[in-house]
Amino acid sequence: MTESNLITLNNYIEGKFQNSKCNHWIDNYSPATGDLIARIPCSSTEDIDDAVTAATNAFNGWSSLSIEERADWLIRIADGLESRKEEIAQLESLDTGKPISLARGVDAARSIANFRFFANHILDHEQQIFEMSDATNRVLYKPVGIAGLITPWNLPLYLLSWKVAPALLMGNTVVAKPSELTPLTANLLAEVMDEIGVPPGVFNIVHGNGIDAGAPLTSHPKVNLISFTGGTATGREVAKAASSGFKKLSLELGGKNATIIRHDADIISKMPEIVRASFMNQGQVCLCGSRILIHETIYDEFVESFVNTVTNMSVGDPSDEATDLGALISAAHRDKILSYIQIAKEEGGVILCGGGMPLNHPTQFKDGFWIAPTVIDGLKPDSICAMEEIFGPVVTLHPFSNDDEAVEIANMTDYGLAGSIWTADSDAGSELAERIDSGMVWVNCWLHRDLRVPFGGVKNSGVGREGGDWSIGFFSEAVNICVKHN
Ligand code: NAD
After folding, report:
1. Which of 28, 95, 154, 236 to mutate to test the pocket of ligand 1 (most atoms within 8 A of CB)?
2. Is residue 4 pLDDT above 70, yes or no?
3. Domains of the chain
């Protein structure tokens, strides 16, 4: 990319696009080609302070609107995004290296749907009244104040909008810090807010890295709430920083999810979904099933069919509609994943497919960040690669002999985000699901999302729940008013 078409982004503070105070920049690269595509402000404490001041100044006006008026703003934001839907998909694919079909069907579509969903959901939220013999209790959902929102790179606008929509709806004003690796669609959201005239200061974006911009946001004394999605180690730092100010805190963290294939699973018809659950977005979805537990009686049959399907996926040009898998987010992330594959080999793992650069990879992508989908057999369930989150296109396979053993293996890790169970017996699958220590378990499906249900993890996968009423509750303070009857 030449200097002339290099994208330069600014922060969005108090309704103005502006550079960081220190005038330092972060380079942003295309994962597919390794080319420099953009530069973003490397913001620091001063910029966070300005954004928090803007959000504070805007709070009274925004929070005094009725909830219907704020829901109306959400619809206007959704309409603004909808009119730029294809641009969202193109920017997301460029910035993350993900296939354009995924960016269109999942990222762009869900980002818009998040605003529409919360605007409509609030209409179903009934006034809560608790009558006593001599008094009436009425529950109010008041705004919390200034919401600090921090998001990762794997589903950039999808996850940012999942936080921004309920935060604004409930009357909070927002300071968002998107991932420094994928800033493009967060900037587009700021442009939409600006175009439709959201009052200055209600929504602010500060670009930058975690240490210089994220950390000052989490510890800022005037920020009342932090919603963080990212890695578990970072979540621990965020929790420490947020705790001294008693901020409301939601942490959506890493996962090491099990996919359980029971003896009676219909592996032929379900195979495309099982492969999708393993490798969607190059395995860079916190919910992906990176450990497949297979009943021993169908182990060989399953493995042959699975590897066959995986090797037939098309890995390559993200802009090609027919591409199944694209690039990894960065050179550092690729190298981390390769180091896990090396550890797997040292632990006795057998690489059934993948393990490095895709075969016959086009030369235009030779400097990008790529690994072919990798399937590893022969590792113990408590080996490093089966216990730690790799967050890439790497799956380990493990046999089990009965449901008890499947549960034991599934619950062996420190994580507890999600899981899926595949079986002809839905009742048995549903009962088995209750024994998995995870926030979400799908039976005969994966990532089948109803936005009303609770979303979040147990153990090291997170604290709290978002989604539907859980987001309404998290982004507000429930206050009870008790009136004694005369
Ligand atoms: P990350 O933890 O490295 O970064 C996430 C965000 O936190 C980024 O914006 C980053 O700049 C910021 N950050 C980094 N250090 C910080 C600090 N000290 N204080 C405040 N902010 C800081 O995560 P990532 O690599 O961007 O994302 C991948 C991880 O996210 C994986 O572990 C994945 O499982 C997880 N994830 C979880 C969910 C979920 O819903 N549970 C969804 C998506 C991704």
Report:
1. 154
2. no
3. 3-253+461-482 (3.40.605.10), 257-450 (3.40.309.10)
